[in-house]
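Our platform keeps sequence and structure together, in a single record for each protein. Such a record has a labelled line for the sequence and another for the backbone structure tokens. This encoding replaces a full spatial description with a residue-level series of whole-number codes. Below, we set out a record of this kind in full and without editing:
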Amino acid sequence: MDSPTSPDEYMPIFYVGQHESKRSLPVTDQVLRQAQDCNYDMLTSPITTPFFHSRVLALFSNHSANLTNYSSTDLPNPTVPPLSSVDTSLPPASAISQIVGIVSPWIDLSSPDPLIYDISSQVLELEIAYAAFCGLSSVIVPGPKLRYGNAYGEGVAQYAHAIQDVLGIGNYTQILIKLPMMDHPDYEEDDMMGSLAPFARTEYIEQGGKQEVDLLGTWDAWHVIRTV
């Protein structure tokens, strides 16, 4: 007689969520009820608003302009201010367990430019801390960018350290990393409006020719992230 816990009788449980990459309106209780009526178990929601995005871009732009008059060693990196009421539309609520938070996709935690990496790390810490405060159980973080000029995968380790640094901020919040199924140069086009990645300074980018497709590149990146 087979055991009731045998692999043949194990039925996996799947949860179906709806993700809108450019969600502009907050996820209210009414929106969640409508999603449940459509048989969705959860919805995604950005943690911060476009106003916060524009504020960070202005901070980055002003600092970059000042770098023309000072060396990077004389001018400390800017500090991203704490979130205000206009920076997020995600309040603590009873239905927060049905929402998956989306960390700002315009940050670049694997950038070879130390300024972009530092600002991205600050944004990540602010958003994870606020998500934990709201009671979000899961947060999706954009995966590392693998290609910078002729360099490949060199920023994965620093990306992993940035993720490791925020694991202690939200002790009850799961960090989910968004990665493509297969590494391909066409998947890393910086076509997102306001992304920090294209602003990496040329002195930190090793220029080179076209790179080939690495079928195991995504797995190699994930292996580094999970073992650091």
